[in-house]
Design brief:
Helices cover about 15% and strands about 25% of the residues. It is an alpha/beta fold. The chain has a single domain, classed as 3-Layer(aba) Sandwich (Collagenase (Catalytic Domain)). Strands 1, 2, 3, 4, 5, 6, 7, 8 and 9 form a nine-stranded mixed beta sheet that branches.
C-alpha cells in the first residue's frame, strides 16, 4: 500500500474463522475456512440470503449476491429476511444478512457460522451502521460497504482471507484485507477489493468438490450424523464469542470459537473499526 494510507490511521480487522493460530495469515494458494462447508448432495447448490437490510444496503446485497453466484459450484438467492436486524438471529439452512446501529462496540462487521462437525448449518452477517453512517469515519462510502458485505458473505461459504496485510498491494478481491477498498488511494490507482476474484472461485471448487449424502440447506429439522438443529446460545456480543483463535495483522483478535458441546460450535469473524 502507498504511504499515503497512513493518514487514516488504524482501520479494520475483518473477523475470519480459519485455522487455529495467533499469527497473521499471509497470501496463500488456499484460503479455506478450516474446510467448513454446507452439506449438499449436488452442485451447483443454492444458498438463501435473508434480506434484513435497509434500502441503503439493498444494492450492496444484490451486488454481492450476483458476484458470488458467478461460482460454478454455488448460487445465492436473496429471500425475505427471517429475523429482526437488531438482534439478527440465525435461521437453519440459510444466511441472514443484517445491518443496524449496533453501537460503539468496536466492530464494523461480523460473520458467524454455526457448525455441526465440519458442516455449516446456519450463518449471519452484520454490518454496523454506527460506523458506516459516521461522516467523520472513512467507512461512509459505497466502496467500504461493498467490500465488507462481500467479504462477510464470502466467509459464510467457508472462505477465509487471501491476505491479511492491510498495507500491501490490493489483490483485487474482497477476501483481502485493505485500507483502500476501491483502490483509489494509491498512486497510481490499484485494483479494487470490492468483489471476488478467480482465486476465490477456484477455492470454492476445492471446498465443494466432494458431495455429501445429506443436506444442511434446509429450514426444517436437519438430518445426517451429528446434526442437532439451531444453537440456542446467544453469541451476539463479543463477551459471548468464546476463545480467541487468531489475531489480525494489527494484533487484534479476529477469529473466535465458542464450543456449544456435542460437536457444535459457533465461529465469529470480526472487522474492527477505527
Amino acid at each position: 500500500m502507498s504511504i499515503s494510507f497512513r493518514r487514516f490511521g488504524k482501520f479494520t480487522a475483518v473477523a475470519v474463522l480459519l485455522s487455529v493460530g495467533m499469527f497473521a495469515f499471509v497470501a496463500s494458494a488456499r484460503h479455506s475456512w478450516g474446510g467448513y462447508h454446507w452439506a449438499r448432495t449436488a452442485n451447483p447448490f443454492t444458498l438463501k440470503l435473508g434480506d434484513n437490510v435497509s434500502s441503503l444496503w439493498d444494492g450492496h446485497l444484490a451486488g454481492a449476491s450476483s458476484d458470488w453466484s458467478a461460482s460454478s459450484v454455488l448460487d445465492t438467492a436473496i429471500v425475505p429476511g427471517g429475523t429482526l436486524a437488531g438482534n439478527c438471529q440465525p435461521t437453519l439452512g440459510r444466511v441472514e444478512v443484517c445491518n443496524d446501529t449496533y453501537g460503539e462496540n468496536g466492530w464494523l462487521g461480523i460473520a458467524q457460522i454455526w457448525l455441526s462437525g465440519s458442516h455449516i448449518t446456519q450463518g449471519v452477517t452484520k454490518m454496523n451502521d454506527t460506523y458506516f453512517n459516521d461522516p467523520t469515519k472513512p467507512y461512509n462510502t459505497l466502496a467500504w460497504r461493498q467490500f465488507v458485505i462481500c467479504q462477510e458473505i464470502g466467509h459464510t461459504f467457508g472462505l477465509g482471507h487471501q491476505d491479511e496485510n492491510f498495507w500491501n498491494t490490493n489483490l483485487g478481491t474482497c477476501m483481502d484485507y485493505t485500507s483502500d477498498p476501491d483502490g483509489t488511494l494509491a498512486n497510481p490507482d490499484q485494483l479494487s477489493n470490492e468483489h471476488p476474484n478467480a482465486h476465490d472461485f477456484d477455492q470454492l471448487k476445492k471446498i465443494y468438490a466432494r458431495l455429501d449424502k445429506f443436506t444442511t440447506l434446509s429450514a426444517g429439522t436437519l438430518s445426517g450424523p451429528g446434526q442437532s438443529g439451531r444453537a440456542a446460545a446467544d453469541v451476539s456480543e463479543p463477551s459471548e464469542w468464546g476463545q480467541v483463535l487468531r489475531q489480525d495483522g494489527r494484533g487484534r483478535p479476529s477469529l473466535y470459537e465458542r464450543d456449544l458441546g456435542n460437536g457444535n460450535k459457533v465461529l465469529t469473524f470480526v472487522i474492527w473499526a477505527n
